[in-house]
Design brief:
CATH class of the largest domain: Alpha Beta
Shape: globular
Number of domains: 2
Strand order of the largest sheet: 3-2-1-4-14-15-16-17
Strand content: 15-25%
CATH superfamily of the largest domain: Metal-dependent hydrolases
CATH topology of the largest domain: TIM Barrel
CATH architecture of the largest domain: Alpha-Beta Barrel
Low-confidence stretches: none
């Protein structure tokens, strides 16, 4: 049995001192006991926070960061960025994907995430021909997560069409295209080659309503229920106003409205980029129990728009955050940007709170930890028995945190940004993967990433 005592820790019931943590060989907490007097147990000096799930990731896009910040079109937008992304995706090899993902997942751990939900839609070779082994690229991501030491929910993406009305896919989407049967066969193959455990879970991601049809979505969900009736389901839903307009033209309904009316959306679901919703849609999404997947740095970078967070918070809606295209891989930057987007829109301060406490940092951190755990479908809901031993340790002597107590710690962690991060150590599944800010594979992963990026740029 592994044991440590955290000097200060954030538990589901609140802040506690001298918290004894015990976990088993599978990395699951078996005992969490505040005010412990146990002697001879290693102490965790600092402030222990539950790990948070990065609920939306396209790993390969990490290598694109900084390469699209120029005007390629007089009306540059998400859609022109997407054209560049498709061209970039054509160049990726399995080895490059693994190198990029390994480096990215290490950066996530250093940035405060202990788990990731990978929205994986790069399935075939550069010409769109299936690999002899259909799990070629998916397994690269499983292995990258294992090597980095981060928990993974892998969400293979079903992608069939280029737009509403079952428009045929175009050449740039050739690597993505598949069917419900192909998806389900992939899941069964992954389960055989890399069985699920506390650190690994499989689900599905119908890409978006524009990329899948109603019948095929129903077929996928039926097959998924036979595979695992509790497996998570993620979908891009209303990222762009054009997407909303096209959905209305095709279905007579807005995307969130249509999905909620046509499928049993519940806590298994994560609706990513539910950016453009009416107030009634916002309230209906909150009532459904689904998680809103908010990716503030990417949504700002792509000019997507601002999520209706104030109304959603008042309705008690569940949310989590993701770094999506990975222009940033820092948890607190996503949380801070989420609140700041609301302030800029409403010209107010301290917008996102839950009614129980006035601390914005507490609402953001606790909400992201809870919603991310639901979206992952894994036992990562906090420092409690039965949950995975995932935590980050903040340096209590960091200038941004010195003298802070209780929820002031979360406010300062999220909203102060003065040089070096206060995140000192990171534990994932009962294993210390970051110590004093460094990961044991940091140098090797950086070298492999640089080589992969240079190969892509040369290509």
């Amino acid at each position: 049995m592994n044991r440590s005592i955290a000097e200060v820790a954030l538990l589901p019931e609140g802040w506690r001192n001298d918290v004894l943590l015990e976990w088993d060989a599978d990395g699951l907490l078996t005992r969490v006991e505040p005010d412990s007097k146990a002697d001879g147990v290693q102490r965790i000096a600092g402030i222990a926070l539950p790990g948070v799930t990065n609920l939306h990731s396209h790993a390969f896009q990490r290598a694109m960061a900084g390469l699209t910040e120029y005007r390629s079109d007089p009306a540059d937008s998400f859609w022109s960025w997407r054209t560049l992304m498709y061209a970039f995706a054509q160049k990726l090899t399995p080895s490059a994907l693994k190198a990029i993902a390994t480096r990215l997942y290490i950066e996530m751990l250093q940035g405060g995430y202990t788990s990731v939900c990978e929205f994986h839609y790069l399935h075939h070779d550069a010409g769109g021909k299936p690999y002899a082994h259909s799990g070629e690229l998916a397994e690269c991501l499983v292995e990258a997560a294992r090597d980095a030491g981060i928990g993974l929910t892998l969400l293979p993406v079903m992608y069939q069409y280029s737009g509403f009305g079952n428009k045929p896919p175009h050449e740039g989407q050739a690597r993505f295209i598949n069917s419900p049967r192909w998806m389900l066969d992939l899941l069964h193959g992954l389960r055989r080659s890399h069985p699920e455990h506390a650190g690994l879970r499989y689900g599905v991601a119908p890409h978006s309503l524009r990329a899948v049809g109603r019948e095929s979505l129903g077929e996928l969900l039926e097959g998924l229920n036979a595979f695992d009736a509790k497996a998570p389901i993620h979908i891009h839903i209303a990222e762009q106003t054009k997407e909303v307009e096209d959905c209305i033209a095709a279905h007579g309904k807005r995307p969130v409205e249509w999905l909620l009316e046509n499928f049993d959306v519940d806590a298994r679901w994560c609706l990513v980029h539910a950016t453009h919703m009416t107030e009634s849609e916002t309230l209906a999404l909150a009532r459904s129990g689904a998680v809103a997947g908010i990716c503030p740095t990417t949504e700002a970078n792509l000019g997507d728009g601002i999520f209706n967070g104030a109304v959603y918070a008042k309705a008690g809606g569940r949310f989590g955050v993701g770094s999506d295209s990975h222009v940033a891989t820092c948890l607190r930057e996503e949380l801070r940007m989420y609140e700041y987007s609301q302030r800029l829109r409403d010209r107010q301060r301290n917008v996102l709170v839950d009614g129980e406490r006035a601390s914005v940092g507490a609402y953001l951190y606790r909400g992201a930890a809870h919603g991310g755990a639901l979206a992952s479908g894994r036992p990562v809901a906090g420092l409690a028995a039965g949950q995975r031993a995932d935590l980050i340790v903040l340096d209590a002597n960091h200038p941004d945190l010195a003298g802070k107590h209780g929820d002031q710690v979360l406010d300062s962690f999220v909203f102060c940004n003065h040089g070096q991060t206060p995140i000192r150590d990171v534990m994932s599944g009962g294993r210390w993967v970051v110590r004093q800010g460094r990961h044991e594979r940091e140098d090797a992963s950086a070298a492999a990433y640089r080589a992969a990026l240079q190969g892509l740029l040369d290509a």
